[in-house]
Amino acid sequence: MQPNIIWQPNSDNPENSNNFAKINKFWTSLNDRKIAWQQRLIPASENTSEINWEPQRFDEVCKLQNPQLRGITLYWRKPDSEEERSTTPHKLELDIQQLQLYIYPQSQKNLVIRVGIPETVYQKIELANPQWESSKAGENHILILRDKQQQIEVRVMLSPDNRDKLKDQLSE
């Protein structure tokens, strides 16, 4: 797993300017792309891993227009607005794995803004001790899980390799 790319003004990190260039490249690559914009308060513990990034009421999904870095200030427009917006960060953190940029504004030290490609939100279904059956379809295996109470049936097609992995995990 790749560590996050961090930039801070006046940092003595020898990679600081390279990190800034990578963050700039990511920020400008968001032009005309659908992004998720989320703002959260930093907890009193200052541990940002405690932040709940589940969707909330004021989160936005929109296309960024003309995102730029001038000096150390981030600029952008929303699609339906001619007004250019900006924020000057005291820290930028890029999670290259999740394609998320964390912006820590100078003007609000207790706030973090997360901007990035919207996450895929999976519908979650919980089946407690479902009925199950299995059958073969060619070289693949079909696993059928049924929950009569919820009236849900889930069909899972497993390749021989995935079936073997599942068997190994279940036998542990």
Question: In a few lines, what is going on in this structure?
Answer:
The protein has 172 residues and is an alpha+beta fold.
Summary keywords:
three-stranded antiparallel sheet; alpha+beta; Protein Yojf, Chain: A; 172 residues; six-stranded antiparallel sheet; single chain
Helix-strand pattern: EHEEEEEEEEEEEH
Termini distance?
A: 26 Å
CATH topology of the largest domain: Protein Yojf, Chain: A
Number of strands: 12
Number of domains: 2
Instruction: Tell me the number of helical segments per DSSP (H or I, 4 or more residues long).
Output: 2
Strand content: 35-45%
Low-confidence stretches: none
CATH architecture of the largest domain: Distorted Sandwich
Approximate shape: elongated
C-alpha Rg, in Å?
22 Å
User: What value does the average pLDDT take?
Assistant: 92
Question: For the record, what CATH class of the largest domain applies?
Answer: Mainly Beta
Detailed description of the structure:
- This protein is 15% helix and 41% strand.
- By secondary structure, the protein is an alpha+beta fold.
- It has two domains: 5-116, Protein Yojf, Chain: A (Distorted Sandwich); 131-171, no CATH class.
- The strands form three sheets. A six-stranded antiparallel β-sheet has the order 1-7-8-9-2-3, with helices on one face. A three-stranded antiparallel β-sheet has the order 4-5-6, covered by helices on one side. A three-stranded antiparallel β-sheet has the order 10-11-12.
- Strand 8 (100-105) and strand 9 (111-116) form a beta hairpin.
- The model has no long low-confidence stretch (mean pLDDT 92).
